[in-house]
Amino acid sequence: GRIVHLADYRPTDFVLERVDLTFELDPTETKVEARLIFHRREGVDAKAPLVLDGDDLTMTSLLFDQIEMDPARYTATPESLVIRDLPESTPFEITVVTMINPEANTQLMGLYRSNGIYCTQCEAEGFRRITYFPDRPDVLAVYTINIIADKAANPLLLSNGNFLGGAGFGPDKHFAAWFDPHPKPSYLFALVAGDLGVVEDTFTTMSGREVALKIYVEHGKEPRAAYAMDALKRSMKWDEEVFGREYDLDIFMIVAVSDFNMGAMENKGLNIFNDKYVLADPETATDQDYANIEAIIAHEYFHNWTGNRITCRDWFQLCLKEGLTVYRDHEFSADMRSRSVKRIAEVRHLRSEQFPEDAGPLAHPVRPTTYREINNFYTTTVYEKGSEVTRMIATILGRDDFKKGIDLYFERHDGDASTVEDFIKCFEDASGRDLKQFSLWYHQAGTPQITVSSTYDASAKTLSLSLEQMIPATPGQSTKEPMHIPLRFALISENGSESTASAIAGGTVSGDVLHLTERAQTFTFAGIGSRPVVSLNRGFSAPVTLHFAQSNDDLIHIARHDSDLFARWQAITDISLPILTSAAKTAQAGGAIEVEPAFIDALLAVAADEALEPAFRAQALSLPSEADVARELGGNNDPDAIHAGRQAVLSAIAKAGTEVFRTLYAAHAANGAFSPDAAGAGKRALKNSALSFLSIAEDTPALAAAAYAKADNMTDLSQALTILAHRFPEADETKAALATFEARFAANPLVLDKWFTIQATIPGADALIRVKSLMQSANFAPTNPNRVRSLIGTFAFSNPTGFNRADGAGYAFYAEQILAIDPRNPQLAACLLTALRSWRLLEPVRAEHARKALESIAASDALSTDVRDIVERVLK
Ligand code: HT7
Ligand code: ZN
């Protein structure tokens, strides 16, 4: 693959005025007729040809202004259509017919079939697999779509925009016409046809227009779409109230399909979803599923303004829509649920997914400047770090100026294909601030490391806080400039009162935000009567790693008193992480692990504190993961030792806290009627955490088996099954529970995905044998991305001891799977391959096995661009 550079951007030579598409659907021979009206852009060379993108296309006819085109004037290959001798300035019409095979489309890009349903996925470059087109996001046009299909098999014919009309078409067929009045890029095109059930509702917008809402799912699954519908209506309302954004068509549709490469897609007026993020009821969905559905429904809906009305000029600007839209969905979930608990979950996710990306061979800026395969840039850096960068703009500007800036963005750029620079300029113009240094966050990769020290001078009544920032080298960026890092803080006095201090020297502090802008900076606070404890980066105001050697006493003070719950959780994490790393080292050296009682007491005090919300207490009890410990150790990692060390710490907590956990479990065991809301979810999380510790303390499957037997919702059921399988894999109770689960949910693939995941993540070297045998199960489908991710993906991403077997068999198996999946679905294969990105942090024997597996992939001469791009960067 060719490397694309941001610096090479220039507009197209021809302006596209209109698009009319007619689809004659057939499972294997779909005819697509595209009528495209263009004119040459002013100032463009009169000889310049029209170059259209294609991917694997077969053209059967080409007309110029309705007349068959002279073959001497064009060149058609599967990858492009080049047309010469075109008018100098007058508009002209090209009519091109292509034949495509949806049934054979296993990449799930372009027009494909999922369980007999025709559907599309065009972002980023899937439209060119449907017809020849200037397939880039800065080409905006108005689309009219005609769909002709067999009526019995496809009663439903959907596309973007508003429904124009439909009628019979010959004896067995019918047709439907759709018109989308909003100019859009091709990546937002969508078509769905088939036979589906529907859940309907309406929403009245802030200006009083009634919008029809429809969620299409497989027949019989309609009741499981109720929660998604509720989340959609709440999203529409919230976007009006918080961002002043109103919906702009007469109808908004969501279609759930079972074969989908990502979570969902924001096609204008016709979102297409992975059914995993639509379907839920208490019997089949966990609390996490409900939270994901709420967030993703909101995310795709919010794209209607941040992505669709204002789109991206080129794919380098992907964070313009994704970072901003993730920020919006985070804020939405924070408003719908507990803000602090949501923030803790976001930060856990950022640290476990984005920080390793930023620290490894795949590191790239939020706004990259080159790519070889755009599909590989739908990353956690673009999405989640992109969101954090937006959040920092809000922190620096404050609520009012942030709102002015975003309002200006909507006003100034509605209808545009924009850039990150356009976005930043709106905040500069609205606030009068210079964001030049801040914008380095878009351009410099790597997680800033901040070393902090504080000194209190009792006689001078001053506190000095010294900060030094270091941004690690990343691929293609060996040196970095100091960045503008906004750190929320408080000085907490002995009695727990908080202040942000008065007189300050050494840098800018506005309200509770300390602005670190230089490589090294000392802030001095005057008039501080007694030594305070410094709470820094409250609310995780900047996505950085702090190296702040605070004493355990200070951290416990924060954990007890900080009014910022996030900071309290962070303090608990800062105490527990060194305990876990030292336990891992002790395990590696073969020593006996001891855990400081003061830590256990502090943790149990939080667990038992009825003044704290249950979800927060559950978060506190969920110690840093094995991956977190590996990251903290930072090299020569032995996953078996990390696991053993962490288990020993969990055991110590379980034994010391048996009474606390027994009380908690009893208090929350009877939850009453199930409700998927945050409060109910928090109680279940705390109860199941207590169950897990009790099962460790008593070392018997009996408790979890009893919980499994009486569970009346999927959260409790799957948690009990996880405890059984992960703690007591050989117990009869476990075997029985796995068998009843499989039988009970045999007809429900999304639920069986949980069954696959639970077994694929059982710790220990035997996991590989289990995964291989589960792949033979009748319920496993190697072509379905959800099945593959839940079995093979979770084995690699979430089973550190199983995947990283010391003999390297996990890696060898994985390499084989990648090579088998790649020809079918390159995007899925490339995404799975990123599980090996941190291989250099492993101890030498495992690292060598991992390198060999990667090299075996690289040695294939049939790799997709997607996999080739990842494997070469990971090995570099
Ligand atoms: N904007 C959507 C991205 C997406 C996608 C990209 C490549 C291949 C398949 C895909 N499916 C969806 C998802 C989103 O961020 O909302
Ligand atoms: Zn998105």
From TrEMBL:
Organism whose genome encodes this protein: Rhizobium glycinendophyticum
Entry's Gene Ontology molecular function annotations: alanyl aminopeptidase activity; metallopeptidase activity; zinc ion binding
Gene3D superfamilies: 2.60.40.1840, 3.30.2010.30, Neutral Protease Domain 2, Peptidase M1, alanyl aminopeptidase, C-terminal domain, tricorn interacting facor f3 domain
Protein keywords: Aminopeptidase, Hydrolase, Metal-binding, Metalloprotease, Protease, Zinc
Enzyme nomenclature, EC number: 3.4.11.2
Aminopeptidase N-like N-terminal domain boundaries: 20-188
Domain Peptidase M1 alanyl aminopeptidase C-terminal residue range list: 553-876
Lineage: Bacteria, Pseudomonadati, Pseudomonadota, Alphaproteobacteria, Hyphomicrobiales
Protein name: Aminopeptidase N
Ranges of residues in domain Peptidase M1 membrane alanine aminopeptidase: 227-438
Protein family membership: Belongs to the peptidase M1 family.
Residue ranges constituting the Peptidase M1 alanyl aminopeptidase Ig-like fold domain according to the UniProt record: 446-548
One of the Pfam families matching this protein, by short name: Peptidase_M1_N
InterPro entries: Aminopeptidase_N-like_N (IPR045357), Aminopeptidase_N-like_N_sf (IPR042097), PepN_Ig-like_sf (IPR038438), Peptidase_M1 (IPR001930), Peptidase_M1_dom (IPR014782), Peptidase_M1_pepN (IPR012779), Peptidase_M1_pepN_C (IPR024601), Peptidase_M1_pepN_C_sf (IPR037144)
Keyword Zinc on entry: yes
Any GO BP annotation: proteolysis
Keyword Aminoacyl-tRNA synthetase included in the entry's annotation: no
Swiss-Prot/TrEMBL cofactor(s): Zn(2+)
Superkingdom of origin: Bacteria
